[in-house]
Amino acid sequence: MFSHPFASSSTSFSQKSLTSINGRPQIKFVFRDNLCAIKVLKKGIWELLQDHFGNVWTPLYHSTAEATVATGKKAEVHYEKFPKHVVFDVLKIIGKPLNEIKIDPKWGFKLVEKNGVAHFYTETIFGAKLYTQEMILSAFFKALKLQTVSIANVKFEEIRISTDFELNESQKAIFEKAAEMNFLKIVSFHIENVE
C-alpha cells in the first residue's frame, strides 16, 4: 500500500543481516499522518519492517475500550463502536498549546488543559481517565518495540525518529519522554518524506 523509493519491505530478518554501528542495531520509528512504521538498517539499506500479516504501516489509534490498552488496527476498529474510548490524530496534538489545536468533531475523546498542557480525556471500562501526551505516545513506542523484537529478533535500546514534518522542541521532549518510558533512547530526529 505505502512504499518508499529508498526502502524495501521484507519479512525475513535475522540478527546477522541487520547492520550495526558500534554493536548496536539501527532501528528507526517512522511517524506520518496518522500512521507509524518501523525501519531497520539491513546490509546498509533502510527497510520497512512488515508485521506478521504483511502490513508495514500501523494506524496511530489508542483504545481503552477493553481492560488492556489496544493500539493500531484493533484500536481503529474500536473507534467504530466506542469513539469515546479511542484517541487518534496524536501528531496533530502533541507539543502544542490547547489554543493552537484544531478540535475535530470526529474525536470522541476530549482535550483537557492541566498545568498549561493538553491532556487526553477518554472513557475507559473503569470510568473516565486523563492521559498525558507522553503516556499515549509511549503506548505506540511499546507496540513498535515489541513488534521489532518479535519480527527482527533483536534487542535494542537506541532508536531514531523520523517524521514527515519538523518537530518543535516541545514535541521532541514528548517523544524523548515516551521513549524513556520504554527504556529507549532517541539518538536522532529526522524529517523524511515517507509515502
UniProtKB/TrEMBL annotation:
Spans through the membrane: none
UniProt keyword list: ATP-binding, Nucleotide-binding
InterPro entries: ATPase_NBD, Hsp_70_fam
Full protein name: Uncharacterized protein
Pfam family, any one: HSP70
Family of this protein: Belongs to the heat shock protein 70 family.
Protein's UniProt keywords contain Nucleotide-binding: yes
Domain of life per record: Eukaryota
Gene Ontology molecular function, alphabetical: ATP binding; ATP-dependent protein folding chaperone
